[in-house]
Specification:
499 residues, alpha+beta, eleven-stranded mixed β-sheet, four-stranded antiparallel β-sheet, 12 helices, 19 strands
Length: 499
């Protein structure tokens, strides 16, 4: 990543009213050496539940970050599939894999059985919209003996073990599906922490799940608050009102003691998505004009202050193999004069840098001749309108390896005709063909090459303009150990996180 610029020391230090004191923590047990043991963790998260904790949408990652849900597999540090609820697996044919379950218990006290796992996966395939990890994939899951699950896909799927690591394919107990509508993970998941109380969007209480297969967590529970204001999250760390706060704004980093500031590379990219279905950007020549108007180096320097790299593509420097394999986009339309074309540019304020990025982009587009109306909302009040195409342009931050760990996953989910998170509403036969080819590639190198060719096809439509590749910045109390700064942003609190 690029070298950080010097910290700024002029940010506001006033505690946002209403946050102080809301994280009172009960005392923990005493360990043999007299230190605290089992203390509850006070965590401030940027995004409130957008879908009532449904495991199939954006809330899936929130659940995995809090240690509530798990899938059959997980991703290791190198992005490869690792055991989770499945202790092992083998490929029986091009289309069939067999997974062997470990002995585990759901948080409602029932056993994790092959039939329960098969039912959970089957229900995920029928969700509307389909989880991003299953975009373009059809699979059938069935129990096989006392510990086995056989998963068969309609077409060969060489990355199925990685796909099943997606937070949106978490395994829940049969009880989760008893009521009509989205399943509930409250008391029905398998992770080290169990949701015991979910507020109306502002908070959630989690207790340690003592029967977790991976051993008891150090912390006795988590008091989570969803605090969309980045300044409030930073101030809460600075004043000791929280133990962990995610997504510290770049502008607030200077207000934190260096000992409480932790950072790591991430595969997250901030991009400008252009509505290709309706409005001015249905015209590829105006999309080309917008792309030409944007100078991402200004955004990296002025907004991210060096905690990012200029947008190079859908995949950034944290995807270490991408740059050497990148393919130059071809077939781009010539830019047309905007002549005052009116557009609505939307973004959300849960990530505090995004409104600032949007203001810079607004100025750059207006300088190029567009007339821009900027709309900023909280994410949960914005997502449905964005997916419905009610905006002409949208600025968001997306982890390119989040859904499956497979580089093809984000391409299928975000940029194909049937993609479940297609903010650009792109439906292009050449793109679909390139993504399908990448999805069929088997070997690691071949799959990477095909993914980069598909990236070039997508960039060639100017449906998306990469702006910046970001870093994780978290505020962590000096009393806390074991916070998980995951480049895939699937984890934050684990069994070893403690205070």
């Amino acid at each position: 990543m690029s070298i950080k610029s010097s910290f700024r020391f002029l940010a506001a230090l006033v505690l946002v009213p209403g946050l102080a004191g809301c994280f009172a923590s009960p005392g923990g047990e005493s360990s043999s050496d007299g230190g605290p043991s089992g203390s509850r963790l006070r965590v401030a998260l940027a995004f409130p539940p957008a879908e009532n904790f449904s495991p199939y949408g954006a809330d899936a990652t929130l659940l995995s970050r809090l240690g509530v849900t798990e899938g059959l597999t997980a991703l290791d540090a190198n992005g490869a599939a690792a055991p989770a609820l499945a202790e092992s697996w083998r490929r029986e044919s091009d289309r069939t894999w067999r997974f062997t379950l470990r002995e585990a218990t759901f948080q409602d006290g029932t056993d994790v059985t092959p039939s329960a796992v098969a039912d959970a996966l089957t229900r995920a395939t029928k969700a509307k919209p389909v989880p991003a990890a299953l975009a373009g994939v059809r699979l059938d899951a069935e129990a096989d003996g006392s510990r086995g699950i056989r998963v068969t896909t309609a077409a060969a799927d060489p990355v199925l073990p990685m796909r099943l690591s997606s937070p949106s394919l978490a395994i829940l107990s049969p009880k989760a599906y008893e009521k009509k509508g989205a399943p509930t993970p409250v008391g029905t998941a398998t992770g080290p922490f169990e949701i015991t109380e979910a507020g109306s969007g502002g908070s959630a209480t989690l207790d340690r799940f003592d029967d977790y297969w991976g051993g008891r967590a150090h912390a006795s529970g988590i008091d989570a608050r969803f605090v969309k204001d980045g300044t409030a999250r930073a101030n809460a760390v600075r004043t000791g009102d929280v133990d962990i706060a995610e997504a510290i704004p770049v502008a607030q980093a200077a207000t934190l003691d260096k000992a409480t500031l932790e950072e790591a590379g991430t595969t997250r990219t901030t991009s400008l998505q252009l509505n290709t279905r309706s409005g001015p950007f249905k015209d590829p020549k105006l999309r080309a004009a917008a792309r030409a108007a944007v100078d991402s180096s200004v955004i990296v320097k002025g907004v991210f202050e060096g905690y990012a790299d200029p947008g190079a593509g859908i995949y950034g420097p944290a995807v270490t193999w991408a740059e050497s394999k990148r393919v130059k986009p071809t077939g781009r339309a010539d830019a047309a004069r905007p002549d005052g074309a009116r557009i609505t540019l939307a973004t959300y304020d849960n990530r505090p840098e995004l409104p600032e990025v949007a203001q810079v982009v607004q100025q750059q587009l207006e300088k190029a001749g567009f007339t821009v109306n900027l709309e900023v909302r909280e994410y949960s009040r914005l997502e449905s309108d964005a997916l419905a195409g009610k905006f002409d342009a949208f600025i968001g931050a997306r982890n390119s390896l989040l859904d499956t760990g497979d580089p093809v996953g984000i391409l299928a989910g975000d940029y194909t005709c049937d993609g479940g998170y297609n903010l650009a509403l792109l439906c292009d036969k050449d793109v679909d063909r390139a993504v399908e080819k990448a999805d069929g590639a088997d070997g690691t190198g071949e799959r990477q090459d095909a993914a980069m060719a598909a990236e070039a096809a997508i960039l060639g439509t100017d449906a998306v303009v990469p702006l910046a590749h970001q870093q994780i910045i978290a505020g962590v109390s000096t009393k806390v150990r074991g916070v998980v700064l995951d480049p895939y942003e699937r984890a934050l609190v684990g069994t070893g996180t403690r205070r």
